[in-house]
């Protein structure tokens, strides 16, 4: 993809991959420019979301971003806290994240997934006003939906390896399977 194509994608929105009653609704912070340019979530090659989904057992094979709608067949979906695309998540204001949290709460109440899995603890803290939140299951609920905060799969998140992320995603998968 050419740099000018990616730059032209700034502020675009990537459509949600959602349905009623999902097992897990994964929630990114916001789309990156490559995701917005392609229309596919977690599309940047260095992003570890798709490999981690497979390694954690959520999907039986490594899906490509262009196959994102296949997630629905596994009871999974994808949305974002903030809809507009940016080059980096740190371009979002705290107010945008809080407003995104309000909209995400409403979307979750409407769709009623069993679990909402937010990837990115810092964004979750801001969006939901949970300043002490940590990675893992949260005490808060949205309706009957449980919340799990996962590490951000961006290649920029060097604190987590693909293997340690897959283990945390796997903990969520086990909890989701147990709650069926």
Q: Compute the separation of the termini in Å.
A: 41 Å
CATH class category name: Alpha Beta
CATH domain topology: Uracil-DNA Glycosylase, subunit E
Number of domains: 1
The structural class is: alpha/beta
Instruction: Describe the largest sheet.
Output: 5 strands, mixed
CATH homologous superfamily label? Uracil-DNA glycosylase-like domain
Uncertain parts = none
Per CATH, the architecture is 3-Layer(aba) Sandwich
Number of strands: 5
SSE order: HEHHEHEHEEH
Can you give the helix content as a percent range?
25-40%
Indicate the mean pLDDT: 94
Strand order of the largest sheet: 2-1-3-5-4
Shape: globular
Task: Evaluate the radius of gyration.
Answer: 15 Å
Percent strand equals 15-25%
GO molecular function: pyrimidine-specific mismatch base pair DNA N-glycosylase activity; uracil DNA N-glycosylase activity
GO biological process, one term: base-excision repair, AP site formation
Pfam families: UDG
Keywords: DNA damage, DNA repair, Glycosidase, Hydrolase
Detailed description of the structure:
By secondary structure, this protein is of the alpha/beta class. The protein has one domain (about 5-180): Uracil-DNA glycosylase-like domain (Uracil-DNA Glycosylase, subunit E), CATH 3.40.470.10. It contains 6 helices and 5 strands, in the order αβααβαβαββα. It has helices at about 5-10, 35-40, 50-55, 95-110, 120-130, 160-180; strands spanning about 25-30, 75-80, 115-120, 135-140, 145-150. It has a 5-stranded mixed sheet, sandwiched between helices. Strand 4 and strand 5 (about 145-150) form a beta hairpin. The protein is globular and about 45 Å long. The protein starts with a helix and ends with a helix. The model has no long low-confidence stretch (mean pLDDT about 95). Pfam families: UDG. It is an enzyme of class 3 (hydrolase).
């Amino acid at each position: 993809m050419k740099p000018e194509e990616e730059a032209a994608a700034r502020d675009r929105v990537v459509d949600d991959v959602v349905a009623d009653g999902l097992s897990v609704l994964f929630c990114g912070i916001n789309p990156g420019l490559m995701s917005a340019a392609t229309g596919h979530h977690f599309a940047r090659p260095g992003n570890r979301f798709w490999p981690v989904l497979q390694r954690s057992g959520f999907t039986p094979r490594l899906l490509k971003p262009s196959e994102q709608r296949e997630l629905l067949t596994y009871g999974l979906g994808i949305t974002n806290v903030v809809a507009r695309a940016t080059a980096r998540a740190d371009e979002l204001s705290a107010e945008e994240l809080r407003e995104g949290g309000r909209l995400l709460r409403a979307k979750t109440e409407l769709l009623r997934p069993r679990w909402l899995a937010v990837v990115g603890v810092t964004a979750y803290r801001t969006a939901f006003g949970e300043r002490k939140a940590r990675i893992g299951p949260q005490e808060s609920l949205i309706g009957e939906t449980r919340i799990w905060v996962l590490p951000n799969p961006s290649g920029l998140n060097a604190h987590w390896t693909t293997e340690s992320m897959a283990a945390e995603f796997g903990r969520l998968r086990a909890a989701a399977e147990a709650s069926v």
